[in-house]
Write a structure and sequence with these properties.
126 residues; mainly beta; 7-stranded mixed sheet; 11 strands
Amino acid sequence: QVHLVESGGGLVQAGGSLRLSCAASGRAFSSNAMGWFRQAPGKTRKFVASLNWNGAPTDYADSVKGRFTISRNKAKNTVYLQITSLRGEDTGDYYCTAAADCSYYIYAGLDQYDYWGQGTQVTVSS
């Protein structure tokens, strides 16, 4: 059974930074797509960033390009999301996700992923 556990969320002032972590267990990843989505209060879950477990390629939502960086540490089986220049609209629950197939691709669609964490909350205050 695959488990994804997010951490690193919290309350931060606008302009600040956070690093979210996603610890994966239960299987080995090789060329799987890994991603982060977020869900603002009262809104649907939306794509934020993705990368292939090989390290490349990566992709970002337009709203976070230049501010967010996705990466992974193979030895720790962990995916990270470095968030800088936080804005109020970045507030929400952030979810880590992984695809079951080893495709060498990356995905931006919710239904393209198979495993989901429970989420970590990020709140940006002005």
